[in-house]
Amino acid sequence: MVLRESESGGASQSTTVVVVGAGPAGLTVANLLRTCGVDCVVLERGSREYVAQRQRAGIVESRAVRMFESWGLADLVLGGAPHDGILEFRVDGETHLVDDTDGSEGPGARLCPQQLLVANLTAAHLAEGGDIRYEVADVSLHDLTGDRPTVRYRSADGTPHTITCDFVAGCDGDHGVTRAAVPEGVLSAHGFDHGVGWLTVLADAPPPAHPLLAVSPQGFAAHFPRGPRRSRYYLQCPPDDRPEAWPDHRVWDALRTRLADPALTAGPITDRETFRLRSLVHDPMQYGRLFLVGDAAHIVSPMGGKGMNLALYDADLFARAVRDHVRDQDDTALRSYSRRCLRRVWNDQEFSHWLTRTVHDAGDDTHRGPFLRNLARARLHRLFTSPTAAQAFAEQMTGLDPAPNPPAATSG
Ligand code: APR
Question: pTM above 0.90?
Answer without folding.
Answer: yes
